[in-house]
């Protein structure tokens, strides 16, 4: 099976229909975080959720669409399209390699995601925006710069701080959402099985 | 006036999109920050001509003002270099950083204002439709259009759920941990209820043969006119002139 058909097969009708919901979850998550005055964005929970249960490619499409729609009202988001895609891909890969089982493994996933996203994001922030992003982490960058640090060092440090809390909470929330979905629904997705509740009474092996 | 409004708004969406790309390319081809900044005013003029000036200005200022101020702050004040341009009290404004900030922000202004103008004079519906005419898969069209419908709907629902949870005693004010705890009881019911709806939507769509490969018909359509051909010729000539200018300035200096 060629690569393109493999990717195409990931986009089943039910996972395609999940994309709009996931993009809306991203928007609502961001809006809620603003309303509750949390110092985080929490705007990628939907992307991660899709990545976790439907695989990296559908996750990537969700991230892309989120930033395209954000870009209609603020084209600055277009610059971060690669990052949004990467979030979906990473979440999908974590699920594919069964890394979202158990708290320690999830912790490793969060750290991995933070590091990869920081390395990917820093060049965009430095070369496109000269270190500024117009969000909260810009204040941390400015503080590091004022204390005499170099631009790259400042951007790396502030991005790691901002991403670790943001992506950590987002990934854990996405995991719990996946966990609380019904088995009937999860069974329709490629990687849904690992999030099903293990119920011994209905275990098919016991019945047979 | 009304005729002028029709002129830009009624161009075919992809023609307008080519226009945006040409404007952005020209900002990167023509050297210096003055031209790139002037794109903001050119776009404002076009917005005025198509009766969208107010929303254009509001959105541009919203998305750019803080960002540009931060760029200038970081590049020209916080990153030290040799030459000092101004001295305001104890603050030094460095020359290298100032020009770096001017260059960076000018490109950002050009890019952002062109795109904002595009989405002021083009509805997303028309734009997606023109892409579908070029061969975009109808599934993609459906996803984008239903996302745009779903976002305001789910935002409204989030408000309802958060009110409901407040009456049940979920704290939404207090220190950061209390507020963070309120995040989950609002998000999870919202997500689960909207996901349940996607199953119904899948059945509805399948019963209307959404997945069949047959050619789809539609009620709404848009057509290219003679103005589009003229606009594209003007844009191509403009781009060639820009490249020509760049080549000439390189020869001279």
Polypeptide structure, described:
The complex is a heterodimer of chains A (208) and B (253). With 208 residues, chain A is an all-alpha fold. Chain A has helices spanning 3-10, 13-35, 45-54, 56-73, 81-96, 103-129, 136-146, 151-179, 183-186, 204-207. With 253 residues, chain B is mainly alpha-helical. Chain B contains 9 helices and 2 strands. In chain B, helix 2 runs parallel beside helix 9 (226-252), helix 3 packs parallel to helix 5 (95-121) and helix 7 packs across helix 8. Chain B is flat, with a radius of gyration of 25 Å. The chains are: A mainly alpha (208), B mainly alpha (253). At the A-B interface, helix 2, helix 4, helix 7 and helix 8 of A face helix 4, helix 5, helix 7 and helix 8 of B.
Characteristics:
heterodimer; A: 208 residues; mainly alpha; 10 helices; 72% helix; 0% strand; globular; B: 253 residues; two-stranded antiparallel sheet; 9 helices; flat
In short:
The complex is a heterodimer of chains A (208) and B (253). Chain A is mainly α and 208 residues long.
Helices, strands, pairings?
The complex is a heterodimer of chains A (208) and B (253).
Chain A: H1 3-10, H2 13-35, H3 45-54, H4 56-73, H5 81-96, H6 103-129, H7 136-146, H8 151-179, H9 183-186, H10 204-207
Helix pairs in contact in A: 2-3, 2-4, 3-4, 3-5, 3-8, 4-5, 5-6, 6-8, 7-8
Chain B: H1 2-9, H2 13-29, H3 33-49, H4 53-78, E1 84-88, E2 91-94, H5 95-121, H6 124-133, H7 138-167, H8 176-207, H9 226-252
Antiparallel strand pairs in B: 1-2
Helix pairs in contact in B: 2-5, 2-9, 3-4, 3-5, 4-5, 6-7, 7-8
Q: What share of residues are in beta strands of chain A?
A: under 5%
Strands in their spatial order, largest beta sheet of chain B? 1-2
- Poorly predicted regions of chain B are none
| Largest sheet geometry of chain A | none
Question: What is the averaged pLDDT score of chain A?
Answer: 89
Shape call of chain B: flat
- Major sheet of chain B: size, sense and barrel closure? 2 strands, antiparallel
User: How far do the termini of chain A sit from each other?
Assistant: 34 Å
Distance between the termini of chain B: 44 Å
Rg over alpha carbons of chain B? 25 Å
Helix proportion range of chain A: over 70%
Number of helices of chain A: 10
Which spans of chain A of ≥5 residues are poorly predicted at pLDDT below 50? none
Strand content of chain B: under 5%
- Tell me the structural class of chain A: mainly alpha
What is the string of SSEs of chain B from the N terminus onward? HHHHEEHHHHH
Please identify the structural class of chain B as seen in this structure: mainly alpha
> Most extensive chain contact?
A-B, 55 and 62 residues
Q: Averaged pLDDT of chain B, please?
A: 88
C-alpha Rg of chain A (nearest Å):
18 Å
